[in-house]
């Protein structure tokens, strides 16, 4: 038979650390044994807790058993959170907005479930009270109808008796002679009249009791309905409050997202501006270095005798570095700036002799006037 797997955290049972010595384990066991002994502990699980304490003590005091237990202790510790973890789990959560939203949604669901349960409990009571009220109202209408009939019969008998004892009947009695009732007939009518009065009194008493019962049932019905409505009103206000908080939080989160997005866009735009300025500085620096390199390579400058149009025609052109090679300048593809005017071009023109580069606009003022036709097999301008 396979041994029963150990699932209890013996260190937590003895309230010691995993690195506790045998002396600390013994001292903790004595303290807890006095506390958890069934003679002193009145809880229903005192015996089981004391036996678990003894098993933990025997395991941790035996070096062999303790080493074997320490091998499986990490898995047991994962399944048994520490008291600090348990305390943290019961503390007010400092959770993320998603968990708060879930918690509020759970609260709304709980309140709605409470309303449904309350309505389910009130429904049979409501039906029972409504049925009782309906039965009482039907009995009351029946008793009122019966009492009305008895009153009509008694009123007819009283009218007949009054007519019989009137002066007109006495005066006309010699003319219209009627047979008088016998004593037995008179006694029977008196008894019936008496019974009808008694029945009327009993029905009136029953009617009064029915009215009292109806008033009680209606009061219970109103009270129950008012309690349910009041409880539902409280839950509805709580739900509205939670939903209002959720809407406010969503608005704040949306505003925060928009602010972050604006800051990110501004930061990206600023970075792009800095990169653009950096590229412009790099291009300017490269152009300056290129001009310095070209000057160091010994490019010659034509004076007024070598170049026909001088400061008399164009002072700006006379101050430029001029080329003395009368040849066709081929294209040099590449998006770059002209060394003369610093304008950006998609290509430049380069002298095959001195390797001087310039844009088509500046090349006209740099090279000498002569045969401008391209060489055989050369690039066209």
UniProtKB/TrEMBL annotation:
GO MF term (any one): Hsp70 protein binding
Annotated GO CC locations: endoplasmic reticulum membrane
CDD domains: DnaJ
Pfam families, per the entry: DnaJ
InterPro entries per the UniProt record, alphabetical: DnaJ_domain, DnaJ_domain_CS, DnaJ_subfamily_B/C, J_dom_sf
Coiled coil spans: 126-204, 269-296
An annotated GO BP: cellular response to misfolded protein
Low complexity biased stretches: 81-99
Domain J: 9-73
Protein name as it appears in the record: Chaperone protein DnaJ
Gene: dnaJ_2
């Amino acid at each position: 038979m396979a041994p029963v797997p150990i699932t209890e955290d013996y260190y937590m049972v003895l309230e010691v650390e995993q690195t506790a010595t045998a002396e600390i384990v013994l001292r903790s066991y004595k303290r807890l044994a006095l506390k958890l002994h069934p003679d002193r502990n009145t809880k229903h699980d005192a015996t089981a807790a004391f036996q678990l304490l003894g098993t933990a003590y025997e395991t941790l005091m035996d070096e062999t058993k303790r080493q074997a237990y320490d091998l499986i202790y990490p898995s047991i510790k994962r399944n048994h959170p520490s008291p600090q973890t348990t305390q943290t789990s019961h503390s007010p959560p400092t959770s993320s907005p998603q968990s708060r939203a879930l918690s509020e949604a759970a609260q709304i669901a709980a309140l709605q479930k409470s309303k449904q349960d309350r309505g389910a409990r009130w429904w049979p009571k409501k039906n029972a009270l409504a049925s009782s009220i309906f039965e009482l109202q039907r009995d009351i209408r029946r008793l009122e109808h019966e009492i009305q009939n008895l009153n009509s019969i008694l009123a007819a008998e009283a009218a007949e008796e009054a007519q019989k004892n009137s002066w007109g009947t006495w005066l006309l009695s010699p003319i219209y002679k009627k047979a008088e009732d016998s004593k037995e007939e008179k006694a029977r009518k008196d008894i019936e009249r008496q019974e009808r009065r008694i029945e009327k009194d009993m029905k009136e008493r029953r009617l009064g009791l029915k009215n009292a019962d109806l008033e009680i049932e209606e009061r219970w019905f109103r009270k129950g309905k008012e309690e349910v409505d009041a409880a539902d009103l409280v839950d509805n206000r709580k739900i509205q409050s939670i939903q209002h908080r959720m809407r406010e939080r969503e608005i704040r989160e949306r505003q925060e997202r928009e602010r972050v997005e604006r800051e990110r866009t501004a930061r990206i735009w600023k970075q792009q501006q800095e990169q653009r300025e950096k590229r412009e500085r790099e291009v300017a620096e490269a152009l300056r270095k290129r001009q310095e390199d070209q000057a160091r390579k010994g490019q010659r400058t034509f004076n007024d005798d070598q170049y026909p149009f001088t400061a008399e025609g164009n002072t700006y052109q006379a101050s430029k570095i001029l080329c003395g090679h009368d040849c066709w300048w081929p294209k040099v593809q590449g998006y770059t700036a002209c060394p003369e005017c610093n304008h950006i071009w998609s290509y430049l023109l380069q002298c095959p002799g001195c390797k001087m580069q310039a844009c088509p606009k500046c090349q006209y003022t740099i090279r000498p006037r002569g045969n401008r036709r391209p060489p055989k097999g050369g690039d066209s301008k």
